[in-house]
Design a protein that fits this description.
- The chain is of the alpha/beta class.
- The chain folds into 2 domains: about 290 residues, no CATH class; about 200 residues, 3-Layer(aba) Sandwich (Rossmann fold).
- Helix content is about 30%, strand content about 10%.
- It contains 15 helices and 13 strands.
- The protein has a 5-stranded parallel β-sheet.
- Bound molecules: 2-acetamido-2-deoxy-beta-D-glucopyranose (3 copies).
- This is OLC1v1027408C3.
- InterPro entries: CAP10, O-Glucosyltr/Glycosyltrsf_90.
């Protein structure tokens, strides 16, 4: 994949020259300051007798701050399992009742390679709430954005999904994933750009560790490129009534049937030093505490790569100059320079220092959206054309301020003036967006989203998946044990340490046509309202 096609980058910035392996000297100082305090005192405590009759040694880790980057391998989750500490069945029962977190480190003691995954040290089933799992009604309901899962799978609701439909999605897929009895088999067709496929697969493997025995057998095609490709017009109102091929990817739009799935950045993006979301979201939360909205710069900030899209080049015209001030401060990202400086300038948490932040698409969605919305600033959202798995639930004036695509500078100028005059309301919108991102989009929910979209997808399959002839088994060991550098660190930081103590949230029902209509209407009328305010403002100004 060509560099200039790469788009889902923080602040939409280009990644030129950043996909080479990191020189160690850049890495180390960078890591030294970003290592979270972490456990190392591993007390081997439990041994749980599970249904298979096998013993699994587990560890309880506390939180003492002795974790020190790469050097901890011996004490980290990558440790080979050595000591066993047997407890009696009655002790086990006590531990179960207290809902102690069970940690099961990776077994790196054998030289694990692709297709050679440890057989059975990890439980194949785990029910955290033994013996009485909570009923459907007692489970917390997933956030509203989960409701779009039904919409994404709607094209197959009557036909189901046949193997030939899946095969038809191969045309653009980077890989095919088959899950059988909780184990993953992957056939790679084409390596993706950077580590997108690696961290996407890593995320799926963590889902399997998190919910052992709960992910149904399935067979899917995944495309790691930015743009959705399954065009509705090729399938709707056609005489042959053919069904679209089901294809997973990171984003979609109103003209396509691609099924959206969380992007790789939730587990980390080593090429540009974006940490796993679990840690990064905490940094952002912390950053928000450091600077209150009123103390922030009263301008709209954007930093990214302008050359990927005409609309971004347009945005540069809104920058402050000797002759004009649209209230915007926009910067072109220079990744070469930032890499040399150890990415100090691109540290996302320290970019939350403006009252307003601009989000503008590249040539498709950008992973920067969550980082921008999480800032407690008012997000000025330039009209978007793509969605990812959570953005369809964002509402104008509730989560963001809508900015017109074709008249950006005037739109931004008005937004900034409005916010500086209506500070309470502007802050409230910023905080609502941050809460949405930091709470409803926390990793627990990202995993549950994956759980539900995969489970619903699997229900539609009309055949029993089998291991494709060219597939290899993939497991966390095969990926993390041989990995190095930042990749290894991000895997270590984002691993599912053991089976989750809770079962997934319950999937809310689809939006019926009526409520769907209400949402669309409401969005449009709010955007029109802003448009009216804007017109009024410019009439009075000129
Ligand atoms: C086994 O557990 C006990 C009590 O939890 C602990 O004192 C002991 O050090 C453990 N033994 C090993 C080998 O980890
Ligand atoms: C680690 O994996 C190897 C190979 O599957 C296996 O023989 C060994 O028992 C495993 N170690 C533990 C502690 O489960
Ligand atoms: C926008 O203006 C600021 C302040 O003058 C300047 O530092 C920055 O480089 C400008 N951005 C671009 C993309 O020219």
């Amino acid at each position: 994949m060509k560099m200039d096609q790469e788009l889902g980058k923080p602040n939409g910035s280009s990644c030129q020259n950043t996909h080479k392996p990191f020189p160690e000297k850049i890495l180390l100082p960078m890591l030294a300051k970003s290592i979270p305090g972490r456990s190392s005192v591993a007390v081997l405590l439990l041994l749980i007798l599970l249904c298979s009759g096998a013993f699994f040694s587990t560890r309880l880790l506390d939180s003492s701050p002795s974790f020190n980057g790469f050097h901890l391998q011996h004490q980290s989750i990558f440790s080979p399992l050595k000591s066993h500490n047997f407890t009696s069945p009655s002790d086990n029962a006590v531990v179960q009742k207290q809902k102690k977190v069970v940690e099961i480190p990776l077994n790196c003691s054998i030289g694990v390679t692709k297709g050679n995954c440890p057989a059975n040290y990890y439980p194949s089933k785990y029910s955290p709430e033994n013996p009485d799992p909570p009923s459907e009604e007692e489970r917390p309901t997933c956030p509203d954005y989960f409701r779009w899962i039904h919409d994404d799978l709607w094209p197959w609701r009557e036909t189901g999904i046949t193997e030939s439909m899946v095969q038809a999605a191969r045309r653009t897929a980077n890989f095919r994933l088959v899950i059988l009895n909780g184990r993953a088999y992957v056939e790679t067709y084409q390596k993706s750009f950077q580590s997108r496929d690696t961290f996407t697969l890593w995320g799926i493997l963590q889902l399997l560790r998190r919910y052992p025995g709960q992910i149904p057998d399935l067979d899917l095609m995944f495309d790691c490129v930015d743009w959705p490709v399954v065009k509705k017009r090729d399938f709707i109102d056609r005489p042959d009534h053919s069904t679209p091929p089901p294809l997973f990817r990171y984003c979609g739009n109103d003209d396509t049937f691609d099924i959206v799935f969380p992007d790789w950045s939730f587990w980390g993006w080593p090429e540009i030093n974006i940490k796993p979301w679990e840690q990064l979201s905490e940094d952002l939360r912390e950053g928000n505490r450091r600077s209150t909205w009123v103390d922030r710069e009263p301008y709209a900030f954007w930093k990214g790569n302008p050359i990927v899209a005409k609309t971004r080049e347009d945005l540069l015209k809104c920058n402050v100059s000797d002759t004009q001030d649209w209230g915007a401060r926009v910067y072109a990202q220079d990744w070469n320079k930032e890499q040399q400086q150890g990415y100090k300038q691109s540290d996302l948490a320290s970019q939350c220092i403006h009252r307003y932040k601009i989000y503008i698409e590249g040539s498709a969605w950008s992973v920067s959206e969550k980082y921008i919305l999480a800032c407690n600033s008012l997000t000025l959202l330039v009209k978007t054309h793509y969605y990812d798995f959570f953005t369809r639930s964002l509402m104008p004036l509730q989560h963001y301020w809508p900015v017109k695509d074709e008249d950006k500078c005037r739109s931004i100028k008005h937004a900034v003036e409005w916010g500086n005059k209506n500070q309470e309301k502007a802050q409230e919108i910023g905080q609502t967006a941050s809460r949405f991102i930091l709470d409803e989009l926390k990793m627990d929910n990202v995993y549950d989203y994956m759980f539900h979209v995969l489970s619903e997808y699997a229900k539609l399959l009309k055949y029993k998946p089998t291991i494709p002839p060219n597939a290899v088994e993939l497991c966390s060991e095969a990926m993390a044990c041989p990995a190095g550098g930042l990749e290894k660190k991000f895997m270590e930081d984002s691993i599912a340490r053991g089976p989750n103590t809770n079962i997934p949230c319950s999937l809310p029902p689809p939006y019926g046509p009526a409520s769907f209509h209400i949402i669309t209407e409401k969005t449009e009328s709010l955007i029109e309202e802003v448009d009216r305010l804007e017109k009024q403002y410019w009439n009075n100004t000129s």
